[in-house]
Design a protein that fits this description.
heterodimer, A: 263 residues, alpha/beta, six-stranded mixed β-sheet, 10 helices, 33% helix, 23% strand, B: mainly alpha, 0% strand, globular
Chain lengths: 263, 269
């Protein structure tokens, strides 16, 4: 089956200071990838380069099409790290915000689009806010609306940049359960930057660790045995993630593991 | 009032002023929300270069200013995108360049006295029929553009990065927005003068934003406040014998104050 994302030798620099160097990977349909790494390690920049929001070097293909020629934006849902909440006086309703997720279909609102909007709002439990002004909602409610906006085009690939930071515990659980359902039932491919490894670990299939370069990309089990990750995180932190994800029987610390003994 | 409206130059001034004020207010809504409202101020300063060259070469200030201001507006965009300079700083740089070149040409030419003063402070009652037609064309362009590209404009102003990931041609939307704004600025300098153009772009939208609940309401109210300022301002200028440009802007400030009071009252209520 066709690769969802193909990145070859991707790099990016701000004012000649390298942020990303020689990053190559392939995302397959149905992958649920947790993108992790230290602050300033280039995770958000990598997503922006993949989406063409920052101009980097290297070859990027989305659904088999080179980024420069890619037009199938309805196949991708994107939720950024920073929502446009800073613009406090933008008088726009929640329904209009969600409708923006279909803006690529044309400058005018098409027939049948409102049904897609209500479906996405139903999924994210935001339908009751439809007529309200977006900026009158709490930050957590806004985040759910922005997730509805990312989902409204029924994307095959979801790219999410720390989407759960503003959510309360209940909303966070609902949020990750929804992502898990989209991935398992609809085979939606998900690339997710998160520090919430405990919550997301229930669903994800692969880890990607980026710290200017691609330190690691593989399955959860491979992550726990990776020497590169151990060097970056230290064996205990690496192993803690292992335990959070319930990867039993793959403990690299063996009899020395305190977590195993306690468990 | 009837006597006031019976003069041909007053009718032309009111019509041209209304058309350009509505266009500026509609454009201003998007510029204010994109935090680019001072672009009108920057472009108006660049107008001085166009007007100075026109007066030096005895050509039309409007036609001479149009390419100068349009190129400057594109320069502001390039500065922010290519050199990663903040929008307000880029506007300041281009504005200073336009103003200094204009003053230099004026000084080298030995000054233009009253001609230049008319453009600096506005002379709405000297608007020609040709200029009125241009103002009508501008409003049709702005209104038609908003009607046809409403979703792309709103999406680009609300969240440009996301709009880009939807396939919205955000670069083209921004370019068209600043180019049409540059045309509006050039056609406005006879109405309120170079010094006060940015007020036509900023004050009516800000007033409308204070009391509106939907985006479409903002657009309509901004246009109404812009046109209302022109009518009341010109009438006040006629009755009180005061400069029309200043009167128009002072009236728009009164609308802004009223909207502020209204918004406070509504929130308290």
């Amino acid at each position: 089956m066709r690769e969802v994302i193909s990145a070859r030798d991707v790099c990016f620099a701000y004012a000649r200071v390298p942020v990303l160097e020689h990053i190559s990977f392939t995302v397959e349909p149905g992958d649920y990838i947790g993108l992790i790494g230290p602050n300033g390690g280039g995770k958000t920049t990598l997503l922006k380069v993949l989406l063409g929001l920052e101009k980097g070097c290297g070859d990027i293909k989305l659904f088999g099409t080179p980024l420069a020629q890619f037009t199938g934006w309805d196949k991708i849902g994107y939720l950024a790290q920073k929502s446009p909440v800073a613009q406090s006086r933008f008088p726009i309703s929640v329904q209009e915000v969600v409708l923006m997720g279909l803006a690529g279909r044309g400058a005018r609102v098409g027939r049948g689009e409102l049904k897609d909007v209500y479906d996405a709002m139903q999924q994210t439990r935001t339908r009751q806010y439809a007529g309200r002004i977006f900026h009158d909602l709490s930050i957590g409610q806004q985040q759910r609306v922005l997730l509805a906006r990312a989902l409204v085009s029924k994307p095959q690939l979801l790219i999410l940049d720390e989407p759960s930071t503003a959510l309360d515990a209940e909303s966070r659980e609902m949020f990750f359960d929804l992502l898990g359902e989209l991935n398992s039932k609809h085979r939606t491919t998900i690339l997710l930057i998160t520090h919430d490894t405990g919550e997301v670990g229930k669903h994800i299939s692969k880890f990607m660790y980026v710290d200017k370069t691609l330190v690691f990309f593989g399955t959860k089990q491979e992550f726990c045995h990776s020497q590169e990750v151990a060097k970056k995180l230290g064996p205990f932190a690496q192993h803690t993630i292992d335990h959070l994800h319930n990867i039993h029987g793959h403990c690299p610390l063996g009899a020395d593991c305190r977590e195993c003994q306690h468990g | 009032m009837v006597e006031f409206l019976s003069y041909g130059f007053v009718q032309r001034g009111l019509l041209a002023g209304s058309l350009v004020a509505a266009a500026c207010a509609l454009l201003g809504v998007f510029l204010v929300l994109k935090r680019l409202s001072l672009i009108g101020d920057g472009m108006s300063h660049v107008c001085l270069t166009g007007v100075a060259v026109a007066l030096l070469t005895s050509t039309s200030p409007v036609y001479m200013s149009l390419p100068v201001v349009a190129l400057s507006s594109l320069g502001i965009m390039k500065l922010t995108q290519k050199f990663r300079i903040y929008g307000d700083a880029a506007i300041g740089i281009v504005s200073a360049a336009g103003l200094s070149v204009g003053l230099l040409i004026t000084a080298l030419a030995g000054g233009f006295n009253t001609d230049l003063l008319g453009y600096l402070f506005g002379s709405i009652l000297t608007v020609t029929t040709e200029e009125t037609v241009l103002c009508a064309g501008l409003l049709v362009l702005v209104g038609g553009g908003i009607f046809m590209g409403y979703r792309w404009l709103v999406a680009t102003c609300f969240d440009e990065a996301f709009a880009h990931t939807r396939g919205v041609p955000t670069q083209a939307v921004n370019t068209v927005l600043v180019l049409v704004t540059s045309v509006a600025v050039v056609l406005s300098f006879k109405v309120v003068g170079i010094f006060l153009i940015s007020a036509l772009i900023i004050i009516p939208p800000v007033s409308a934003l204070l009391i509106s609940h939907t985006f479409k309401q903002v657009l309509w109210l901004a246009a109404v406040f812009g046109v209302g300022s022109v009518w009341v301002g010109i009438y006040a200028s006629f009755v009180l014998n005061i400069p029309s440009g200043a009167a128009i802007i002072l009236v728009s400030l009164i609308f802004l104050f009223a909207c502020y009071v209204w918004s406070k009252g509504v929130h308290r209520g």
